[in-house]
Amino acid sequence: MLHQFNPFVIRFKQLSILPNISECSLILKERPRNHHQYNLPTAEQVATIIVGCDADSMDYGRDINVIRCDGNLKKVQETKGYYDPLQYPVLFPFGTHGWDINTINCNGRRVSCRAYYSYMLQIRPNDQSMLLNAGRLLQQYVVDNYVKIESGRLRWIKEHQSDIRSELYQGLHDALHVGETNAENIGKRTILPSSFIGRRRDMTQRYEDGMAIVLNGGKPDIFLTMTCNPSWSEITSKLLPFQTPQDRPDLLTRIFRSKFEKLEDDVINKGVLGKVKSYMYVTEFQKRGLPHVHMLLVLESNDKLRDPKDYDSMVRAEIPKLECEPQLHEAVVRHMIHGPCDIINRKSPCMKDGHCKKRYPKQFLDETRQGTDSYPEYRGRFDESVSLGKDRSVDNRWVVPYNPWLLLKYDCHINVEICSSIKSIKYLYKYVYKGPDRVAMEVHKGSYMDEVQQYIDARWIYAPEALWKIFRFTLYRLYPSVERLQIHLPNRHQVRFYDHQQIVDVLNNERNSKTMLTQFFALNLRDPQARKYLYREIPEHYCWNKRDMEWHRRRSTRKVLV
Predict the structure, then answer these.
(1) Which end of the chain, C or N, has fewer beta carbons within 10 A?
(2) Is 65 exposed, middle or buried (0-12, 13-18, 19+ CB in 10 A)?
(3) What pLDDT digit, counting tens, does each position of 336-356 carry?
(4) How crowded is residue 536: how many other Cβ atoms within 10 Å of its Cβ?
(5) SS3 label, residue 147
(6) Single pTM value for the model
(7) What per-residue confidence (pLDDT) applies to 20?
(8) Can the peptide bond before residue 220 be classed as cis, meaning omega within 30 degrees of 0?
(9) What is the mean pLDDT of the chain?
(10) What is the largest CA-CA distance in the chain?
(11) Other CB atoms within 10 A of residue 473 CB
(12) CA dist 152 to 39, 303, 461, Å?
Protein backbone atom coordinates (compact mmCIF):
# COMPACT_ATOMS: atom_id res chain seq x y z
CA MET A 1 0.00 0.00 0.00
CA LEU A 2 2.76 2.45 0.93
CA HIS A 3 4.64 1.91 -2.33
CA GLN A 4 1.43 2.31 -4.29
CA PHE A 5 -0.27 5.27 -2.59
CA ASN A 6 2.23 7.10 -0.36
CA PRO A 7 3.90 9.97 -2.28
CA PHE A 8 6.83 10.15 0.14
CA VAL A 9 7.97 6.53 -0.27
CA ILE A 10 9.17 7.05 -3.84
CA ARG A 11 10.96 10.31 -3.00
CA PHE A 12 12.99 9.35 0.07
CA LYS A 13 15.22 6.46 1.06
CA GLN A 14 14.18 4.07 3.80
CA LEU A 15 16.45 3.62 6.79
CA SER A 16 16.33 -0.15 6.36
CA ILE A 17 18.41 0.06 3.16
CA LEU A 18 21.01 2.49 4.50
CA PRO A 19 24.38 0.91 5.42
CA ASN A 20 26.57 1.74 8.39
CA ILE A 21 24.00 3.41 10.61
CA SER A 22 25.86 4.25 13.82
CA GLU A 23 24.52 2.88 17.08
CA CYS A 24 23.70 5.05 20.04
CA SER A 25 22.36 4.10 23.46
CA LEU A 26 21.05 6.13 26.39
CA ILE A 27 21.70 4.88 29.92
CA LEU A 28 19.46 6.42 32.58
CA LYS A 29 21.08 7.19 35.92
CA GLU A 30 19.56 7.87 39.32
CA ARG A 31 20.28 11.13 41.12
CA PRO A 32 19.93 10.33 44.84
CA ARG A 33 20.13 13.96 45.93
CA ASN A 34 16.78 14.66 44.27
CA HIS A 35 15.26 11.21 44.29
CA HIS A 36 11.63 12.19 43.74
CA GLN A 37 12.32 13.81 40.37
CA TYR A 38 15.20 11.60 39.23
CA ASN A 39 14.09 8.11 40.23
CA LEU A 40 14.37 5.53 37.48
CA PRO A 41 11.31 4.76 35.33
CA THR A 42 9.65 1.39 35.90
CA ALA A 43 6.87 1.44 33.29
CA GLU A 44 7.31 -0.12 29.87
CA GLN A 45 6.00 2.86 27.95
CA VAL A 46 7.23 5.20 25.26
CA ALA A 47 8.54 8.47 26.69
CA THR A 48 10.23 11.55 25.34
CA ILE A 49 13.42 13.02 26.77
CA ILE A 50 13.59 16.80 26.41
CA VAL A 51 17.10 18.20 26.76
CA GLY A 52 17.78 21.80 27.69
CA CYS A 53 14.36 22.74 29.08
CA ASP A 54 15.15 24.04 32.55
CA ALA A 55 13.96 27.42 33.75
CA ASP A 56 16.63 29.43 31.98
CA SER A 57 17.07 27.62 28.69
CA MET A 58 14.79 26.84 25.79
CA ASP A 59 14.57 24.31 23.01
CA TYR A 60 13.64 25.94 19.71
CA GLY A 61 13.31 22.90 17.52
CA ARG A 62 14.73 19.52 16.58
CA ASP A 63 17.31 18.42 14.07
CA ILE A 64 15.26 16.16 11.77
CA ASN A 65 16.52 15.07 8.36
CA VAL A 66 15.44 12.74 5.58
CA ILE A 67 17.53 11.37 2.72
CA ARG A 68 16.37 11.88 -0.84
CA CYS A 69 16.72 9.10 -3.36
CA ASP A 70 19.64 11.04 -4.89
CA GLY A 71 21.45 10.82 -1.53
CA ASN A 72 21.04 14.47 -0.51
CA LEU A 73 19.79 15.42 2.94
CA LYS A 74 16.65 17.46 3.44
CA LYS A 75 15.86 19.12 6.76
CA VAL A 76 12.29 18.57 7.94
CA GLN A 77 10.73 21.30 10.04
CA GLU A 78 8.30 20.01 12.65
CA THR A 79 5.96 22.90 11.84
CA LYS A 80 5.38 21.61 8.30
CA GLY A 81 2.34 19.52 7.44
CA TYR A 82 4.42 16.76 5.88
CA TYR A 83 6.21 16.00 9.16
CA ASP A 84 3.48 13.64 10.41
CA PRO A 85 3.23 11.42 7.28
CA LEU A 86 7.03 11.23 7.07
CA GLN A 87 7.41 10.25 10.71
CA TYR A 88 4.35 7.95 10.86
CA PRO A 89 3.77 6.35 7.44
CA VAL A 90 1.90 3.44 9.06
CA LEU A 91 -0.60 5.83 10.65
CA PHE A 92 -0.91 7.94 7.50
CA PRO A 93 -0.37 5.48 4.63
CA PHE A 94 -1.76 7.91 2.03
CA GLY A 95 0.61 10.70 3.08
CA THR A 96 -2.13 12.78 4.71
CA HIS A 97 -0.63 16.01 5.99
CA GLY A 98 -0.75 16.96 9.66
CA TRP A 99 -0.75 20.35 11.33
CA ASP A 100 1.14 23.35 10.00
CA ILE A 101 1.00 27.07 10.75
CA ASN A 102 -1.60 27.61 8.00
CA THR A 103 -4.10 24.99 9.20
CA ILE A 104 -7.59 26.50 9.44
CA ASN A 105 -10.97 25.28 10.69
CA CYS A 106 -14.32 25.33 8.90
CA ASN A 107 -14.78 28.99 9.88
CA GLY A 108 -11.53 30.00 8.25
CA ARG A 109 -9.73 30.63 11.54
CA ARG A 110 -6.25 29.36 12.20
CA VAL A 111 -6.00 26.30 14.40
CA SER A 112 -3.29 26.10 17.05
CA CYS A 113 -1.00 23.11 17.23
CA ARG A 114 -2.48 22.05 20.59
CA ALA A 115 -6.08 22.36 19.35
CA TYR A 116 -5.29 20.32 16.22
CA TYR A 117 -3.80 17.36 18.10
CA SER A 118 -6.50 17.56 20.75
CA TYR A 119 -8.99 17.14 17.90
CA MET A 120 -7.04 14.24 16.40
CA LEU A 121 -6.99 12.39 19.73
CA GLN A 122 -10.70 12.61 20.53
CA ILE A 123 -12.75 9.44 21.08
CA ARG A 124 -15.70 9.40 18.67
CA PRO A 125 -18.67 7.00 18.60
CA ASN A 126 -18.41 4.20 16.03
CA ASP A 127 -15.01 5.47 14.90
CA GLN A 128 -12.46 2.66 14.53
CA SER A 129 -9.55 5.07 14.69
CA MET A 130 -6.26 3.59 13.50
CA LEU A 131 -4.48 6.25 15.53
CA LEU A 132 -6.12 5.44 18.89
CA ASN A 133 -5.56 1.72 18.33
CA ALA A 134 -1.90 2.05 17.34
CA GLY A 135 -0.52 0.89 20.72
CA ARG A 136 3.04 2.01 21.37
CA LEU A 137 3.00 4.00 18.14
CA LEU A 138 0.15 6.06 19.62
CA GLN A 139 2.32 6.75 22.66
CA GLN A 140 5.13 7.96 20.41
CA TYR A 141 2.74 10.09 18.35
CA VAL A 142 1.43 11.73 21.52
CA VAL A 143 4.76 12.57 23.16
CA ASP A 144 6.30 13.59 19.83
CA ASN A 145 3.58 16.11 19.09
CA TYR A 146 3.52 17.39 22.66
CA VAL A 147 7.17 18.32 22.18
CA LYS A 148 6.11 20.07 18.98
CA ILE A 149 3.50 22.06 20.93
CA GLU A 150 5.90 23.05 23.69
CA SER A 151 8.65 23.93 21.22
CA GLY A 152 6.19 26.19 19.44
CA ARG A 153 5.36 28.00 22.67
CA LEU A 154 9.04 28.46 23.45
CA ARG A 155 9.65 29.66 19.90
CA TRP A 156 6.90 32.23 20.33
CA ILE A 157 8.53 33.47 23.52
CA LYS A 158 11.84 33.78 21.71
CA GLU A 159 10.35 35.70 18.80
CA HIS A 160 8.12 37.99 20.85
CA GLN A 161 10.08 38.53 24.05
CA SER A 162 13.70 38.60 22.96
CA ASP A 163 13.33 42.37 22.49
CA ILE A 164 11.46 42.97 25.76
CA ARG A 165 13.48 44.50 28.56
CA SER A 166 12.81 45.42 32.16
CA GLU A 167 14.32 48.10 34.39
CA LEU A 168 13.50 50.04 37.53
CA TYR A 169 11.34 53.10 36.87
CA GLN A 170 13.94 55.25 38.65
CA GLY A 171 16.65 53.66 36.52
CA LEU A 172 14.96 54.99 33.38
CA HIS A 173 14.91 58.49 34.88
CA ASP A 174 18.60 58.19 35.74
CA ALA A 175 19.47 56.97 32.25
CA LEU A 176 17.58 59.86 30.66
CA HIS A 177 19.28 62.30 33.01
CA VAL A 178 22.76 61.24 31.86
CA GLY A 179 21.79 61.59 28.21
CA GLU A 180 20.76 58.03 27.25
CA THR A 181 17.73 58.03 24.95
CA ASN A 182 17.64 54.53 23.41
CA ALA A 183 15.91 51.86 25.50
CA GLU A 184 17.88 49.00 23.96
CA ASN A 185 21.01 50.08 25.85
CA ILE A 186 19.55 49.68 29.33
CA GLY A 187 17.70 47.09 31.35
CA LYS A 188 17.80 43.33 31.07
CA ARG A 189 16.06 40.95 28.72
CA THR A 190 13.05 38.92 29.77
CA ILE A 191 13.80 35.29 28.87
CA LEU A 192 11.27 32.81 30.21
CA PRO A 193 8.29 34.16 32.18
CA SER A 194 6.93 32.53 35.32
CA SER A 195 3.63 32.13 33.44
CA PHE A 196 5.26 29.24 31.55
CA ILE A 197 3.62 26.44 33.54
CA GLY A 198 5.79 23.80 35.16
CA ARG A 199 9.09 25.65 35.06
CA ARG A 200 11.11 26.42 38.17
CA ARG A 201 9.84 29.99 38.55
CA ASP A 202 6.24 28.88 38.19
CA MET A 203 6.64 26.10 40.77
CA THR A 204 8.41 28.47 43.19
CA GLN A 205 5.55 30.94 42.99
CA ARG A 206 2.99 28.18 43.51
CA TYR A 207 4.91 27.00 46.58
CA GLU A 208 4.84 30.56 47.94
CA ASP A 209 1.08 30.72 47.28
CA GLY A 210 0.67 27.51 49.27
CA MET A 211 2.65 28.94 52.16
CA ALA A 212 0.41 32.03 52.08
CA ILE A 213 -2.56 29.73 52.69
CA VAL A 214 -0.70 28.21 55.67
CA LEU A 215 0.03 31.64 57.13
CA ASN A 216 -3.61 32.69 56.89
CA GLY A 217 -5.50 29.44 57.39
CA GLY A 218 -3.16 27.23 59.38
CA LYS A 219 -1.35 24.00 58.64
CA PRO A 220 -2.99 21.32 56.49
CA ASP A 221 -4.77 18.52 58.31
CA ILE A 222 -4.96 15.85 55.59
CA PHE A 223 -2.53 14.79 52.87
CA LEU A 224 -4.33 12.72 50.24
CA THR A 225 -2.81 10.99 47.23
CA MET A 226 -4.95 9.35 44.53
CA THR A 227 -3.36 7.17 41.83
CA CYS A 228 -4.95 5.96 38.61
CA ASN A 229 -6.06 2.32 38.55
CA PRO A 230 -5.47 0.90 35.04
CA SER A 231 -7.86 -1.95 35.86
CA TRP A 232 -10.91 0.27 36.26
CA SER A 233 -13.79 -1.29 34.31
CA GLU A 234 -14.29 1.97 32.40
CA ILE A 235 -10.83 1.41 30.91
CA THR A 236 -10.67 -2.35 30.44
CA SER A 237 -14.13 -2.52 28.82
CA LYS A 238 -12.91 -0.29 25.97
CA LEU A 239 -9.78 -2.30 25.17
CA LEU A 240 -9.52 -4.48 22.09
CA PRO A 241 -8.26 -8.07 22.33
CA PHE A 242 -4.54 -8.18 23.23
CA GLN A 243 -4.53 -4.48 24.17
CA THR A 244 -3.22 -3.32 27.55
CA PRO A 245 -4.26 -0.13 29.38
CA GLN A 246 -0.87 1.37 28.49
CA ASP A 247 -1.82 1.03 24.81
CA ARG A 248 -4.63 3.54 25.41
CA PRO A 249 -3.08 6.44 27.35
CA ASP A 250 -6.00 8.60 26.21
CA LEU A 251 -8.39 6.34 28.15
CA LEU A 252 -6.15 6.34 31.22
CA THR A 253 -6.01 10.12 31.17
CA ARG A 254 -9.71 10.77 30.60
CA ILE A 255 -11.01 8.20 33.09
CA PHE A 256 -8.61 9.30 35.81
CA ARG A 257 -9.62 12.91 35.34
CA SER A 258 -13.30 11.96 35.57
CA LYS A 259 -12.70 9.93 38.74
CA PHE A 260 -10.70 12.69 40.38
CA GLU A 261 -13.38 15.28 39.62
CA LYS A 262 -15.83 13.08 41.55
CA LEU A 263 -13.34 12.71 44.40
CA GLU A 264 -12.84 16.47 44.44
CA ASP A 265 -16.60 16.97 44.71
CA ASP A 266 -16.86 14.42 47.55
CA VAL A 267 -13.96 15.80 49.56
CA ILE A 268 -14.22 19.54 48.95
CA ASN A 269 -17.88 20.25 48.23
CA LYS A 270 -19.62 17.47 50.18
CA GLY A 271 -17.04 17.35 52.99
CA VAL A 272 -16.87 13.58 53.45
CA LEU A 273 -13.63 14.02 55.44
CA GLY A 274 -14.82 17.17 57.18
CA LYS A 275 -15.69 20.71 56.14
CA VAL A 276 -12.80 22.07 54.09
CA LYS A 277 -11.58 25.60 54.78
CA SER A 278 -8.84 25.71 52.16
CA TYR A 279 -7.13 23.26 49.85
CA MET A 280 -4.61 22.81 47.09
CA TYR A 281 -3.77 19.98 44.72
CA VAL A 282 -1.23 19.11 42.06
CA THR A 283 -1.55 16.56 39.26
CA GLU A 284 1.64 14.58 38.61
CA PHE A 285 2.74 11.73 36.38
CA GLN A 286 4.83 8.93 37.83
CA LYS A 287 7.61 7.20 35.97
CA ARG A 288 5.47 4.12 36.60
CA GLY A 289 3.31 5.51 33.80
CA LEU A 290 0.21 6.43 35.82
CA PRO A 291 -1.16 9.89 36.71
CA HIS A 292 -1.75 10.76 40.36
CA VAL A 293 -2.86 13.74 42.42
CA HIS A 294 -1.50 15.13 45.70
CA MET A 295 -4.05 17.09 47.74
CA LEU A 296 -3.58 19.06 50.97
CA LEU A 297 -6.70 19.93 52.98
CA VAL A 298 -7.15 22.45 55.79
CA LEU A 299 -10.28 21.68 57.79
CA GLU A 300 -12.55 24.08 59.65
CA SER A 301 -11.81 24.30 63.38
CA ASN A 302 -14.88 22.24 64.35
CA ASP A 303 -13.71 19.35 62.16
CA LYS A 304 -10.03 19.37 63.16
CA LEU A 305 -8.48 16.03 64.03
CA ARG A 306 -6.95 16.52 67.45
CA ASP A 307 -6.05 13.13 68.94
CA PRO A 308 -5.52 9.45 68.02
CA LYS A 309 -9.22 8.73 68.56
CA ASP A 310 -10.08 11.25 65.84
CA TYR A 311 -7.39 9.76 63.59
CA ASP A 312 -8.88 6.27 63.92
CA SER A 313 -12.31 7.58 62.92
CA MET A 314 -10.93 8.64 59.54
CA VAL A 315 -7.83 6.59 58.73
CA ARG A 316 -7.06 2.89 59.03
CA ALA A 317 -3.84 0.99 58.43
CA GLU A 318 -4.95 -2.61 58.91
CA ILE A 319 -6.15 -5.42 56.67
CA PRO A 320 -9.85 -5.96 57.50
CA LYS A 321 -11.11 -9.41 58.37
CA LEU A 322 -12.24 -11.24 55.24
CA GLU A 323 -15.33 -12.63 56.94
CA CYS A 324 -16.37 -9.21 58.32
CA GLU A 325 -15.59 -6.82 55.46
CA PRO A 326 -14.90 -8.87 52.33
CA GLN A 327 -15.03 -5.98 49.83
CA LEU A 328 -12.79 -3.74 51.90
CA HIS A 329 -10.43 -6.66 52.56
CA GLU A 330 -10.06 -7.25 48.82
CA ALA A 331 -9.56 -3.52 48.10
CA VAL A 332 -6.86 -3.13 50.77
CA VAL A 333 -4.95 -6.20 49.60
CA ARG A 334 -5.18 -5.07 45.97
CA HIS A 335 -4.36 -1.36 46.35
CA MET A 336 -2.94 -0.49 49.77
CA ILE A 337 -0.05 -2.90 50.35
CA HIS A 338 3.40 -1.36 50.17
CA GLY A 339 6.30 -2.98 48.40
CA PRO A 340 7.65 -5.54 48.26
CA CYS A 341 10.84 -3.96 49.56
CA ASP A 342 13.35 -4.35 52.42
CA ILE A 343 14.89 -7.84 52.51
CA ILE A 344 12.28 -9.12 50.04
CA ASN A 345 13.35 -6.73 47.27
CA ARG A 346 16.49 -4.68 47.78
CA LYS A 347 16.06 -3.05 44.33
CA SER A 348 12.67 -1.50 45.09
CA PRO A 349 12.48 2.24 44.19
CA CYS A 350 11.72 3.07 47.82
CA MET A 351 15.02 1.63 49.07
CA LYS A 352 17.81 3.99 50.12
CA ASP A 353 21.00 2.97 51.93
CA GLY A 354 19.57 -0.49 52.52
CA HIS A 355 16.35 0.71 54.15
CA CYS A 356 12.85 1.65 52.99
CA LYS A 357 12.42 5.43 52.87
CA LYS A 358 8.79 5.01 53.91
CA ARG A 359 9.91 2.93 56.91
CA TYR A 360 8.18 -0.28 55.91
CA PRO A 361 7.60 -2.73 57.41
CA LYS A 362 6.11 -0.73 60.29
CA GLN A 363 5.91 -1.93 63.87
CA PHE A 364 2.87 -3.72 65.23
CA LEU A 365 0.83 -1.29 67.34
CA ASP A 366 -2.26 -1.93 69.46
CA GLU A 367 -3.18 1.77 69.52
CA THR A 368 -2.58 4.76 67.27
CA ARG A 369 0.12 7.08 68.58
CA GLN A 370 0.72 10.77 67.97
CA GLY A 371 3.74 11.32 65.75
CA THR A 372 6.62 13.57 66.75
CA ASP A 373 7.06 15.96 63.82
CA SER A 374 5.80 13.16 61.59
CA TYR A 375 2.65 11.39 60.50
CA PRO A 376 0.82 9.53 63.28
CA GLU A 377 1.83 5.94 63.96
CA TYR A 378 -1.40 4.21 63.07
CA ARG A 379 -2.83 1.18 64.78
CA GLY A 380 -1.65 -2.04 63.14
CA ARG A 381 -2.27 -4.99 65.41
CA PHE A 382 -0.57 -8.36 65.23
CA ASP A 383 -2.68 -10.70 63.15
CA GLU A 384 -2.45 -13.57 60.72
CA SER A 385 -0.66 -12.96 57.45
CA VAL A 386 -2.55 -12.71 54.18
CA SER A 387 -1.22 -14.49 51.11
CA LEU A 388 -0.64 -12.41 47.98
CA GLY A 389 0.51 -15.33 45.88
CA LYS A 390 3.99 -15.84 44.42
CA ASP A 391 5.27 -17.00 47.80
CA ARG A 392 4.59 -13.64 49.46
CA SER A 393 2.51 -13.01 52.54
CA VAL A 394 1.83 -9.67 54.21
CA ASP A 395 0.45 -8.47 57.52
CA ASN A 396 -0.60 -5.13 58.98
CA ARG A 397 2.96 -3.82 59.00
CA TRP A 398 2.79 -3.36 55.21
CA VAL A 399 -0.55 -1.51 54.96
CA VAL A 400 -0.57 2.04 53.57
CA PRO A 401 -3.00 4.31 55.52
CA TYR A 402 -6.39 4.68 53.84
CA ASN A 403 -9.94 5.90 54.34
CA PRO A 404 -12.37 2.95 53.99
CA TRP A 405 -15.18 4.93 52.36
CA LEU A 406 -12.97 6.51 49.68
CA LEU A 407 -11.14 3.25 48.99
CA LEU A 408 -14.35 1.31 48.42
CA LYS A 409 -15.93 3.99 46.24
CA TYR A 410 -12.96 4.69 43.96
CA ASP A 411 -11.27 1.28 43.86
CA CYS A 412 -7.72 2.60 43.50
CA HIS A 413 -4.73 3.54 45.60
CA ILE A 414 -5.86 6.43 47.82
CA ASN A 415 -3.38 7.18 50.58
CA VAL A 416 -4.90 9.35 53.33
CA GLU A 417 -2.52 10.71 55.97
CA ILE A 418 -3.12 12.97 58.96
CA CYS A 419 -0.43 15.65 58.63
CA SER A 420 -1.46 18.23 61.26
CA SER A 421 1.30 17.02 63.61
CA ILE A 422 4.09 17.72 61.11
CA LYS A 423 6.13 20.77 62.16
CA SER A 424 8.21 20.95 58.98
CA ILE A 425 5.24 22.07 56.92
CA LYS A 426 7.53 23.45 54.20
CA TYR A 427 8.55 19.87 53.41
CA LEU A 428 4.98 18.96 52.45
CA TYR A 429 4.58 21.90 50.11
CA LYS A 430 8.00 21.46 48.54
CA TYR A 431 7.18 17.80 47.95
CA VAL A 432 3.89 18.71 46.28
CA TYR A 433 5.51 21.44 44.15
CA LYS A 434 8.72 19.60 43.33
CA GLY A 435 8.21 20.01 39.59
CA PRO A 436 8.14 17.66 36.59
CA ASP A 437 9.95 14.34 36.33
CA ARG A 438 13.52 14.43 35.10
CA VAL A 439 16.20 11.93 34.16
CA ALA A 440 19.96 11.96 34.27
CA MET A 441 21.52 9.96 31.47
CA GLU A 442 24.73 9.07 29.72
CA VAL A 443 25.03 8.93 25.95
CA HIS A 444 27.17 6.12 24.53
CA LYS A 445 28.20 5.92 20.89
CA GLY A 446 29.37 2.74 19.31
CA SER A 447 29.41 -0.71 20.82
CA TYR A 448 31.81 0.06 23.68
CA MET A 449 29.91 0.96 26.80
CA ASP A 450 32.87 2.79 28.35
CA GLU A 451 32.92 5.43 25.61
CA VAL A 452 30.87 7.99 27.50
CA GLN A 453 30.31 11.04 25.33
CA GLN A 454 28.34 13.32 27.60
CA TYR A 455 26.22 13.52 30.73
CA ILE A 456 22.79 15.02 30.18
CA ASP A 457 20.10 16.35 32.51
CA ALA A 458 16.70 16.25 30.82
CA ARG A 459 12.94 16.20 31.30
CA TRP A 460 11.04 12.93 31.03
CA ILE A 461 7.48 12.88 29.68
CA TYR A 462 5.15 9.90 29.27
CA ALA A 463 2.08 9.84 27.04
CA PRO A 464 -0.44 10.39 29.91
CA GLU A 465 1.28 13.64 30.90
CA ALA A 466 1.49 14.78 27.28
CA LEU A 467 -2.20 14.04 26.77
CA TRP A 468 -3.19 15.80 29.98
CA LYS A 469 -1.53 18.97 28.72
CA ILE A 470 -2.76 18.59 25.14
CA PHE A 471 -6.34 18.30 26.44
CA ARG A 472 -5.63 21.24 28.78
CA PHE A 473 -6.85 19.48 31.90
CA THR A 474 -6.26 21.18 35.25
CA LEU A 475 -2.78 20.65 36.68
CA TYR A 476 -2.96 22.84 39.80
CA ARG A 477 -5.65 24.38 41.93
CA LEU A 478 -5.82 26.08 45.30
CA TYR A 479 -8.45 27.83 47.39
CA PRO A 480 -8.71 30.55 48.44
CA SER A 481 -6.99 32.29 45.56
CA VAL A 482 -3.78 34.17 46.28
CA GLU A 483 -3.10 37.69 45.01
CA ARG A 484 0.60 38.50 44.65
CA LEU A 485 0.76 42.13 45.78
CA GLN A 486 3.59 44.36 44.64
CA ILE A 487 5.73 46.07 47.27
CA HIS A 488 8.44 48.58 46.35
CA LEU A 489 10.03 51.88 47.29
CA PRO A 490 8.95 55.06 45.45
CA ASN A 491 9.84 54.78 41.75
CA ARG A 492 11.66 51.49 42.36
CA HIS A 493 9.18 49.22 40.57
CA GLN A 494 9.94 47.20 37.46
CA VAL A 495 8.90 48.56 34.07
CA ARG A 496 8.75 46.46 30.90
CA PHE A 497 9.42 48.01 27.51
CA TYR A 498 10.64 47.21 24.00
CA ASP A 499 14.23 47.91 23.02
CA HIS A 500 13.13 49.95 19.98
CA GLN A 501 11.35 52.50 22.19
CA GLN A 502 12.69 55.86 23.29
CA ILE A 503 13.16 56.24 27.03
CA VAL A 504 11.15 59.45 27.11
CA ASP A 505 8.20 57.62 25.53
CA VAL A 506 8.40 54.88 28.15
CA LEU A 507 8.40 57.44 30.95
CA ASN A 508 5.55 59.44 29.41
CA ASN A 509 3.33 56.35 29.30
CA GLU A 510 1.07 56.75 32.33
CA ARG A 511 0.67 52.99 32.71
CA ASN A 512 4.35 52.61 33.51
CA SER A 513 4.03 54.79 36.61
CA LYS A 514 1.16 52.72 38.01
CA THR A 515 1.48 49.65 40.22
CA MET A 516 -0.78 47.82 42.64
CA LEU A 517 0.81 49.77 45.49
CA THR A 518 0.63 53.25 43.94
CA GLN A 519 -2.97 52.67 42.88
CA PHE A 520 -3.81 51.50 46.40
CA PHE A 521 -2.87 54.99 47.59
CA ALA A 522 -4.84 56.52 44.71
CA LEU A 523 -7.83 54.36 45.66
CA ASN A 524 -7.73 55.73 49.19
CA LEU A 525 -7.87 59.27 47.83
CA ARG A 526 -10.99 58.72 45.75
CA ASP A 527 -12.88 56.01 47.70
CA PRO A 528 -13.50 56.58 51.43
CA GLN A 529 -14.71 52.98 51.76
CA ALA A 530 -11.23 51.70 50.88
CA ARG A 531 -9.68 53.53 53.83
CA LYS A 532 -11.07 50.90 56.19
CA TYR A 533 -8.77 48.22 54.78
CA LEU A 534 -5.08 47.54 54.92
CA TYR A 535 -3.20 46.93 51.67
CA ARG A 536 -3.26 43.17 52.26
CA GLU A 537 -7.05 43.27 52.80
CA ILE A 538 -7.85 45.18 49.60
CA PRO A 539 -8.00 42.10 47.26
CA GLU A 540 -10.95 40.73 49.28
CA HIS A 541 -13.05 43.80 48.45
CA TYR A 542 -11.45 45.09 45.24
CA CYS A 543 -10.08 43.36 42.16
CA TRP A 544 -7.05 44.48 40.18
CA ASN A 545 -7.73 45.27 36.51
CA LYS A 546 -4.51 44.78 34.56
CA ARG A 547 -5.88 46.51 31.47
CA ASP A 548 -6.47 49.95 33.03
CA MET A 549 -4.12 49.38 36.01
CA GLU A 550 -6.77 50.24 38.62
CA TRP A 551 -8.48 48.68 41.64
CA HIS A 552 -12.24 48.13 41.11
CA ARG A 553 -14.77 47.34 43.81
CA ARG A 554 -15.93 43.71 43.82
CA ARG A 555 -19.65 43.06 43.41
CA SER A 556 -19.45 40.52 46.23
CA THR A 557 -16.79 39.99 48.89
CA ARG A 558 -14.43 37.17 48.02
CA LYS A 559 -11.91 35.30 50.13
CA VAL A 560 -8.48 36.22 48.74
CA LEU A 561 -5.08 35.75 50.36
CA VAL A 562 -1.94 37.78 49.71
Answers:
(1) N
(2) exposed
(3) 999 788 777 877 878 877 888
(4) 13
(5) helix
(6) 0.82
(7) 62
(8) no
(9) 81
(10) 88
(11) 16
(12) 29, 48, 17
